[in-house]
Amino acid sequence: MNILTYGEIMDGGASVFHCVARDDAGSLLVTFSGVVRVDNPGRHLAELLGDLRQLLPGRAIERTVIDFTELEFCNSNGFYIIMDIIELVYAAVEGPVVVRRLEEDDWQQETLPILLNLDEAAVAARTLFEDVREI
Amino acid sequence: MNEAERGPGPSSAASSSSLMMLPVTTRLGVSFRVAPLGDIRGNLATLLGDSLPALLGMFYPPAVGKKANVAVTELIQNVVENIVDPASELLLELHVDADGLSVQVRNKATLAQYEAVRARIDAVAGVADPKRLLADTLRARRADRLKGGLGLLRLVSENRFRLSARYEHEHLTVHAAFPLRGSV
Q: Cα–Cα distances in Å, from A79 out to A12, A83, A84, B56?
């Protein structure tokens, strides 16, 4: 499994959030972990977006997994950057997208589908949710 | 005193199953105040919100702590981003009992700030589908990265809080309430 790129948010001198994109023999795995609470997360993740824009188009990806199960918290400041990353991934790769999310998390169950833009038929048709129970 | 009270009914689908895991018998109250607000360094909303899942998790199902975390984070963040008087005080009151979870934040504010908050609360209360409103609001504001009101909207559409706001003696109080009775 190759790490294509990653983005990180530092807050108070500590690393609090990671987004990592990996390529594994035709499968793309994008994981979100940690917490998004800083005032302007887009500033921290601009380089990640640039990398994804450059690396993903034209890549032979048959299946994509976007994993939110390690994302512990996202405040409303983080909504736009999550939308940016998701939108970029959906636009750059073809094929089905499995979205792994926590079964008992209001944000991941209620708001994440909005950020995914499931109202758009083309997005909804490609998206399959995998609900994961938190241990 | 002016008051606006809005919000949909009981628990969301996501959290209802864990809210039914345990009976709520413990009464818990937390009060936090800080002044002057100009002394705040770092991310106060994070520090307060982050502490709640572990604290409330001692007594209640995890969903209660998660909801408290979201409410405290969004409400405190609103205060810190809109300080009108750096010498003034912030008061946070959190209560949980068998009836519900209650989060109240009070700070000095202008009448215009109160009216803006009340307009947002009224707006979310006036729609049949708060999630649709959140989706439309995000789309409309995304290009300019406008944030105002997203936190309050989220508390209703995502977490099923009832919101109210009042204005007394130059102070704005925002109250978020989530009913637990009937869920446990």
A: 21, 6, 9, 26
Check whether A11 has a pLDDT greater than 90.
no
CB proximity under 8 Å: A 28-67 to B: 35, 37-39, 42
Mean pLDDT score, A90-113: 95
Please report the ipTM that was assigned to this predicted complex: 0.89
Q: Residue A106's pLDDT band (boundaries 50, 70, 90)?
A: very high
B68 burial type by CB count under 10 A (0-12 exposed, 13-18 middle, 19+ buried): buried
Amino acid A50 reads G
Q: Which chain A residues are within 8 Å of B151, Cβ to Cβ?
A: 75-76
pTM for the predicted model, two decimal places: 0.86
With CA atoms as reference, report the closest residue to B14 among B59, B60, B67: B67
Domain ranges of chain A: 2-132
Q: Which of B44, B120, B154, B161 to mutate to test the interface with A (most CBs of A within 10 A)?
A: B154
Confidence check: pLDDT of B4 > 80:
no
Which pLDDT band holds residue B3 (cuts at 50, 70, 90)?
Answer: very low
Write down the CATH number for the domain with range A2-132. Answer: 3.30.750.24
Three-state DSSP class for residue A133: coil
CB–CB contact A107 B70 (8 Å): yes
User: What's the CATH fold of domain B2-179?
Assistant: Heat Shock Protein 90 (3.30.565)
Q: What are the chain A neighbours of B46 within 8 Å (beta carbons)?
A: 11, 35, 37
**What residue ranges in A2-93 does DSSP mark as E strands?**
2-11, 14-24, 27-36, 63-74
- A77 → chain B, closest CA residue: B147
B74 residue type, one letter: E
**Could you read off the pLDDT of B19-37 as tens digits, one per residue?**
655 567 899 999 999 999 9
